[in-house]
Amino acid sequence: MRKYFPALQYINIPNAITTTGLVFGLCACFFLTAGDIKGILICLLLASLMDLMDGFFAKKLEQQTRFGEYADSLVDFTVCCIIPALMLLRFVGSELIFVISIIIYCVGGLWRLAHFNIVASEKRDYFTGLPVPGAMLLATMLTWAAVKYGLPAWICVPGFILLGIFMVSYIKIKKFGVGHKILCALDLGFFILIVVS
Fold this sequence. Notes:
By secondary structure, this protein is mainly alpha-helical. It has seven helices and two strands, in the order ααααβααβα.
């Protein structure tokens, strides 16, 4: 089988989890077209859980591969950059200023992920720049606050722009350090808020 489908040689548990994250992202697209912001957010937060799990199992099972790194980055860009950008346009505003903000946000995410793949071979115990899933969490929290709680729409513009800049900045966040744990706690808390609201 792998003779005719060479990509199948990379099937393992971490890559299956990464693929599941993509599936959740595609489900979020379905909810986006239906205008169901709660469904989108649940799918995105489940996708971010898959992003945590694939890295954990890759290390635990010693199945870290270049394929896995590239696949993870492709899923992250789709799920964490494109979908939050479309959410902002769909639910908050589609004027030029919003378009400019999501362009900066998405370009920041793209450049951060490309840079990450270049330096991935270097063993580091910290992230350089705001991790893309963390940016997605904060971007979707802004959008949710604007839709659900009446946060002024214009606040989302500098919010998305700053997130785009932070992703390519020299900010260092220690892996599983205080900053990383805060992002994970926010993720969990936001997920619970969405489910019970």
